[in-house]
Amino acid sequence: MKDKVFTPRSMGRMAMCVALISVGGYIAFPTPFSPVMVTATTLALGITALILPPKQTAVAILAWILLGAAGVPVFSGGQGGIGKLLGPSGGFFPGFFVGYTCVSYLKGKSYAWKRYLLVLLAVAFPATYILGIAYMMLTLHVELWQAMTMAMFSFIPGDIIKAVAAAFLGVRLNKVL
Question: H-type helices in the chain, by residue range?
Answer without folding.
Answer: 8-26, 41-51, 54-69, 82-86, 92-106, 113-119, 125-140, 144-151, 156-176
